[in-house]
Amino acid sequence: MNSFVSTTAIEAEPQAAAEEVVRLTDVKRRFGATAALDGVSLTVKRGEILGIIGRSGAGKSTLIRCLNGLERADSGEILIEGRNITGLSEQELQPLRRRIGMIFQHFNLLSAKTVEENVALPLKIEGLAKSERLRRVHELLELVGLADKAKAYPSSLSGGQKQRVGIARALAARPALLLSDEATSALDPETTRSILALLKDINRKLGLTILLITHEMEVVRGIADRVAVIDAGRIVEEGQVWSVFANPQAEITGSLLGGIRPQLPEHIAGRLSATAGSEAILSVDLAGPQAQGALFAELSAALPHSFRLVHGGIDHIQNQPVARFFIAVPARDPALAGKVEQFLTARSARVEVLGYDTDHA
């Protein structure tokens, strides 16, 4: 069946829950002396949204270009729906590329073509009859909320509308996998949220597998099921989004999270000493039921007058409470900070002594 059903009745095709759409095994790609990908292994299951995050130059763009066959891996395996693409010729790659949709940071729309013509272009290349192209294009434009813009040209559209056209075009050939390459980086925060909500809705309605390349943790937090962190061509951390946000293991992950997790206020952080002060400052990371429980009340009952709350907050990611707090523990008893840390750690908190406040009275 080549056509979309009505957008009012789009549902995911039944698939085995654990079926893999993408599997990378020890993929390497070098450019001269630079290892752009240095042994990358990961999987993406059908219907999953995976966010791949990293700084500029970490290997994200090379990874996505290897997935759609625009770059050839030097070694390793790249399987798309079970087929190894690493040894395929350009001609053999063509039908496989139709199974992969792509949305771009700068939209890549043809300015001389209407919205309708831009979306129809992959279908025209495929050889679909004009009447069938138009029917599918109109269904797609309805899906992305642009049914009234079919005859408009890209120059008359906002950035968010252009990206919606890009998404509709990427869906035209009914892909099994949608690749998003920094698709919201050129958009303002409000428009970004609307585009992420659209992608999540498409994922739910079509059961579409989405792989997001981004440097924005807010994007991962807003839409992804899992996140993989790439640094210097290697996957250094991966897991469910809420779990990684609650307990980042790699230094780069903590750095990338710095903008959206509570941080110790600068006026306190700037006066911390590594050895002595009136209070020890501890960071406390919690996830799950403990993040909303009576943990600090229990701590106060067990160790009276043992701490004061300095800063922090609770967020909800994938319906899981994730919390980070900073507490100050009097330093007059050298053993007290250790007792507090032991109490909290025994209740699944991640605790770190950041230093000693030299100025608090």
Automatic annotation (TrEMBL):
Protein name listed in UniProt: Cell division ATP-binding protein FtsE
InterPro entries: AAA+_ATPase, ABC_transporter-like_ATP-bd, ABC_transporter-like_CS, ACT-like_dom_sf, MetN_ABC, MetN_ABC_transporter-like, NIL_domain, P-loop_NTPase
GO molecular function: ATP binding; ATP hydrolysis activity
Taxonomic source organism: Rhizobium leguminosarum
Pfam families per record: ABC_tran, NIL
Role of this protein: Part of the ABC transporter FtsEX involved in cellular division. Important for assembly or stability of the septal ring.
Family to which this protein belongs: Belongs to the ABC transporter superfamily.
UniProt keywords, alphabetically: Amino-acid transport, ATP-binding, Cell membrane, Membrane, Nucleotide-binding, Translocase, Transport
Record GO biological process: amino acid transport
SUPFAM superfamilies: ACT-like (SSF55021), P-loop containing nucleoside triphosphate hydrolases (SSF52540)
PANTHER family assigned to the protein according to its UniProt record, in alphabetical order: AMINO ACID IMPORT ATP-BINDING PROTEIN (PTHR43166), METHIONINE IMPORT ATP-BINDING PROTEIN METN (PTHR43166:SF30)
Domain ABC transporter: 22-257
SMART domains referenced in this protein's UniProt entry, alphabetically: AAA, NIL
Record-level GO cellular component terms: plasma membrane
